[in-house]
Amino acid sequence: MGGSSWMGGAAPMAEITYREALNAAMCQEMDRDDSVFLLGEEVAEYDGAYKVSRGMLARYGDRRVVDSPISELGFAGLCVGAAMSGLRPICEFMTFNFSFLALDQVINSAAKMLYMTNGQVPIPMVFRGPTGAALQLSAQHSQACETYYVHAPGVKLVTPATPADAKGLLAAAIRDDDPVAVMEGELLYNVRGEVPDEEYVIPLGVADLKRAGDDVSIITHGKMVHVALQAARALAREEIEAEVLDLRSLRPLDVDAILASVAKTNRVVYLEEGWPFAGVGAQIVSLIQDEAFDDLDAPVLRVTQADVPMPYAKNLEQLAKPGVKAVVEACRKVLYMPGTIT
Amino acid sequence: MGGSSWMGGAAPMAEITYREALNAAMCQEMDRDDSVFLLGEEVAEYDGAYKVSRGMLARYGDRRVVDSPISELGFAGLCVGAAMSGLRPICEFMTFNFSFLALDQVINSAAKMLYMTNGQVPIPMVFRGPTGAALQLSAQHSQACETYYVHAPGVKLVTPATPADAKGLLAAAIRDDDPVAVMEGELLYNVRGEVPDEEYVIPLGVADLKRAGDDVSIITHGKMVHVALQAARALAREEIEAEVLDLRSLRPLDVDAILASVAKTNRVVYLEEGWPFAGVGAQIVSLIQDEAFDDLDAPVLRVTQADVPMPYAKNLEQLAKPGVKAVVEACRKVLYMPGTIT
Amino acid sequence: MAQATQAPVKNGEAPAAGDDRDPAANRLHGFSREELHGLLADMLLYRRFEEKAEEAYAIGRIGGFCHLHIGQEGLAAGAIKPLRADDLVITAYREHTQAIAKGIPPRAVMAELYGRVGGCSGGRGGSMHLFDTTVGFYGGHGIVGGQIPLGAGLAWAIRYRGGDQVCVCFMGDAAVNQGAFLESLNMSAVWQLPVIYVVENNGYGMGTAFSRVSVTEMEVRSGAYGIPAHTVNGQDVLETYRFFEGLAERVRGGAGPQFVNAITYRFRGHSMSDPVSGTYRSKEEVEAHLQGEDPITILRDRLMDAGLLAQEELETIDAAARAASEDAADFADASPQPDPSTLYDHVYAEINPHGRLFLDGRGGSHG
Amino acid sequence: MAQATQAPVKNGEAPAAGDDRDPAANRLHGFSREELHGLLADMLLYRRFEEKAEEAYAIGRIGGFCHLHIGQEGLAAGAIKPLRADDLVITAYREHTQAIAKGIPPRAVMAELYGRVGGCSGGRGGSMHLFDTTVGFYGGHGIVGGQIPLGAGLAWAIRYRGGDQVCVCFMGDAAVNQGAFLESLNMSAVWQLPVIYVVENNGYGMGTAFSRVSVTEMEVRSGAYGIPAHTVNGQDVLETYRFFEGLAERVRGGAGPQFVNAITYRFRGHSMSDPVSGTYRSKEEVEAHLQGEDPITILRDRLMDAGLLAQEELETIDAAARAASEDAADFADASPQPDPSTLYDHVYAEINPHGRLFLDGRGGSHG
Ligand SMILES: Cc1ncc(C[n+]2csc(CCOP(=O)(O)OP(=O)(O)O)c2C)c(N)n1
Ligand SMILES: Cc1ncc(C[n+]2csc(CCOP(=O)(O)OP(=O)(O)O)c2C)c(N)n1
Ligand SMILES: [Mg+2]
Ligand SMILES: [Mg+2]
């Protein structure tokens, strides 16, 4: 369970929040490498809109922790330019919802640069911030943005679900020589968990089995891991043992872990926060039918946000979001359980 | 095959180019509705970068055919604003590659507006221009953009492959009360075909069987229809009868046509110009496995662009693009034919 | 220290305030006693309404982000009240009072904050997305700068149809650093659109003083596109009203796009989670503005000084404002939540007879 | 008529041309005979190189888009030659001669246009994406305005490391209408970055005269962000050289970001498919520029007038330019196409030991 330590040994742990874990990862990397800096809106004097960078201005000064104007296209592009020159920017989007404004620089500059320069100009940088919905933030502030970052080759994408993963994956993202999007969750920032005190890096591309089970696989990523775990606990009460595979990294994608889970349970539900059409889940279904067709005892079901912009009203928002009930339902359905509503 | 006429009767036809068909659709709609106007870079005095709007400035004047500064975010947003007020803008992107700059207005304004206003503010407009690769235009000018427009609910998307479809679908898109992206192809503009002279509208959401066949279904959209037809002809020489289903409209999606084809051939190849990860094909595979799992005799295979930014060099570009050979190969593979290279 | 604390430079068009008392005629600045009471009543309503919203937020009746306009009411009244009913207003997310000023009933605004069907956006939009096209209020937009091209487009449509309305497009001071600002102002100038861009310059974008993200003053930002710039003291509702009254007429007459730097100050935190002072502005700074720059106090004092307002009149007006706010809250409370069956409504205006629009396997009846 | 035809306003820094002949000392404008011949040779090389590219395009050796700089060579030489080797240049897609000016060998540029491994981007980039970081040339960008924030970022990195290089960021006149322009210039001003933004003002963005998409003159576009504007005659390579020499030193010394409106003219169509004249500019207009505004002719005539260039010297220089261009084309022709096995190289700099990076079922060996 939880983030696996890749540093070996029984490392000393502290229970800290996801927010603090991200902060720890940035500090860890900024301590060891002067070329790492943090730039974004409100990251410095305000300690971050969600306080992720708390104390970092005081610790590193305004050369390395920099408040930007509200100019997403410009500051993302500026960070790409700095990365072209070999620096390692951490570009914070207050939320990824605002990064549509910057998408041209993400895709046309960051993702394609190395290729068009024949390997001369790597872009060793991080785009990070929360993705997806929080509570009642309405349509423009509640969008899961994974598809926009994972479709084009050239960018990597990780989605830590726990504090330990947050520390280890963000650290790995900063060290990686490619542009890596780190998609967090506003609703995760207060989640607490054990995190190694010492230097901690989780290699990109390694999924994590957050719960083992024989009957059905719930494969997921990001904050939906917690929904999946709740669903698994609910299913356990019906004596259905679901395993919860947290992909953690969408690109690189841990195909082996996916296939192993499919081979074990033969039944899969993909759970994600975003919309269905050309979502991450579509890709995972396609991959599974392609490489594990014969392992499947039922079609892979997907649980996603309703295919609507996120409504503000509390009751509609709850309906639109993928929830525990829908996951339980889907698991029962792939198990061809009686009483399943179709 | 080709575009089916929805106007009934044996309409008089002329053989014109895809470019002329688009022009005819715009003129047809501008003649009947003063609220339709065309705005974009070089659309007026220059007759369009690809001459799609040839003669329209002369015909409609500079009130309705308008050259814009190179300000994609701004002019796309201006068109959305004009649509909020009930006009029916046709917003031309010189190519969709440049529309990443405008994506915030497409998604956060155009797609979400109707929902957040509780139905008060429809956005009856069109975003149009070529998508995907032409010849050796390199990474930043050769991207298929469908995924970015189809993921978010609130936008519709059509991809005409023939001159008749170009006329009928663009006309329907202009008349539709929602934002519709019309993705064309630079390499299609010179394609000739029969197009009804008279008023011609093809309803959105109706796929077109461009070729019938019993052995395998090649499902595709946009300019790849022509590659699929070539592959089908090559397969026919081996006595394999492939059918080519042109989705034409990705949203609304003609699920019935897809399922009917799957039920008929039991073997499917999805061909698209873009990248695989969270591509349109991923969605179609997911849909098929979900709704026609038992009809499949083999996993659905996908043929896509190589998962790399488009290289400039002629030989690499050819390798990167999905071609006839790859489609033939994939069809043979889903047919479990001997000699298939895996 | 942000420029909000500078003495605002007055624009030539607005008659100078302070020397225009005409007690004999019962007028101030050309406004009748009735008009003056009306403006005071408007601003008091805005204030009480938002105080009520603040309360409702505290007890969880309102969720999500909620950005109060308290302190900036002079601009809602002063810039919007002089407009014609068929003029258009578009703005950002700090828009409760602007919505009321343009004519959305307080009940419909409050119900929207509550996320109820009685809300002006049916409960789907929330605080940041208030809309009522019947009164010419076009939202309520959450992406900083996102409304600027939309405002240009609304103005485009006016020109296209040959109308004589104007579009007023509000934005915060931080929004002028968005590329959309350049693109929209430039197009507006090239096409001479009937649009007035108004920066509600409260000196801060969240925790960032404008002076930290700009080396120039706000006034020079529009000159690059040849758009005339004006500065107005948004805390003086009478000056502001007269100024916009004149400017709107000039734009109606074909003067082309305009840029207004309206100096104001935010009395609350950026949103409900941001403390009023502490991090990025001192208690003293806020206190000084509360004392000297409250648009409501300023008007009240001037009216009283001029003998145009009695204490009991003030109390009556305020009581009405409080009552209307209570009433709005009661209405909101009583308004039902949206019917769950409407989840898939209004994603598309046109449900095409062919094909599937919703791919989640749930919105089936619609696609 | 675009502003390219206006008499360029000369910037104070550049010594006035025309009255600076010093034949006794064999100097013009302070340049030695050798330096003057060097600049002429540079520009002639650019011209012949692109004429060769034009030929190669016509016979299909070069594909895709190809944007010639012919007519604008004064700016490639004049703005780039005075820079230090470790200064950085970034630009748009009309960049062949800028790449050569910064030090990419003509062979590597031509081979890139041919899409061959010997190209400076290994044949993967093509005409619009020339790169060679060893000489400080950072592309070659195809999205109009896309290089502007990147240029700010390169300058950011210089400042971050405490270096004294400058970054020169070129753009076309049409690019100033991109939002990226506002955002980048503003950030550069706020952070006082060592960057010189140079508009190659050839009067047109494709078929659109600047005057059709701007009501203001180019000079006023940077003032909104407090960035000093300069205008220079890009057809006068000597003036341009001296101007950039001085400006680069001032930026090196901490003068902060600068904006240069460099007046020039494009002698060819926008790209290979666009006719030289006809649609958006008259034959006469182009002819007038060809006659009076050719940077090469201007320099040649001045040198000859001053007795600093003999006819046979000119011929020798030109022959060398032609030979180098031939040589570049021969080299390109002989250079092999990229190895098909490299298709998946350089998508990622770091191939992580875990997980799959390529999802097409083909790039297997890499992921
Ligand atoms: C594009 C974008 N970036 C960031 C945000 C987050 N955000 C919301 S309001 C705000 C500050 C805006 O300040 P200003 O424009 O001055 O308006 P004010 O809040 O002062 O009314 C920010 C950064 C956003 N909503 N959109
Ligand atoms: C964002 C974007 N929009 C449109 C284009 C298509 N396009 C390529 S060059 C060009 C004109 C640019 O003109 P200018 O900036 O003046 O440069 P010049 O070609 O004159 O050197 C256009 C519209 C593009 N490449 N990128
Ligand atoms: Mg502000
Ligand atoms: Mg130009």
Overview of the structural elements:
The complex is a heterotetramer, with 2 copies of chain A (342 residues) and 2 copies of chain C (367 residues). Helix content of chain A is 35%, strand content 18%. Chain A has 342 residues and is an alpha/beta fold. In chain A, strand 6 (156-158), helix 6 (163-175) and strand 7 form a beta-alpha-beta unit. Chain C is an alpha/beta fold. Chain C contains 10 helices and 11 strands. The longest helix of chain C is centred in the N-terminal third of the chain and has 26 residues, at 33-58. Chain C is globular. Chains A and D meet through helix 3, helix 4 and helix 9 of A and strand 5, helix 5 and helix 6 of D. Bound molecules: thiamine diphosphate (TPP) (2 copies) and magnesium ion (MG) (2 copies). One thiamine diphosphate sits between chains C (94, 142-144, 172-175, 200, 202, 204-206, 270) and A (41, 70, 72, 94, 98, 101).
Q: In terms of topology, how is this protein built?
A:
The complex is a heterotetramer, with 2 copies of chain A (342 residues) and 2 copies of chain C (367 residues).
Chain A: E1 13-17, H1 18-32, E2 36-40, H2 56-60, E3 65-67, H3 72-84, E4 88-92, H4 103-116, E5 126-130, H5 146-150, E6 156-158, H6 163-175, E7 180-184, E8 192-196, E9 208-211, E10 216-220, H7 224-236, E11 242-246, E12 249-251, H8 255-265, E13 268-271, H9 280-291, E14 301-303, H10 314-320, H11 324-334
Parallel strand pairs in A: 2-3, 2-4, 4-5, 5-7, 6-7, 10-11, 10-13, 13-14
Antiparallel strand pairs in A: 1-8, 6-12, 9-11
Chain C: E1 21-22, E2 27-28, E3 31-32, H1 33-58, H2 73-80, E4 88-91, H3 96-102, H4 106-114, E5 137-140, H5 147-161, E6 167-172, H6 179-190, E7 195-201, E8 204-205, E9 208-209, E10 229-233, H7 237-252, E11 258-263, H8 283-292, H9 295-305, H10 311-334
The complex binds thiamine diphosphate (TPP) (2 copies) and magnesium ion (2 copies).
One magnesium ion binds at residues 172-174, 202, 204-205 of chain D.
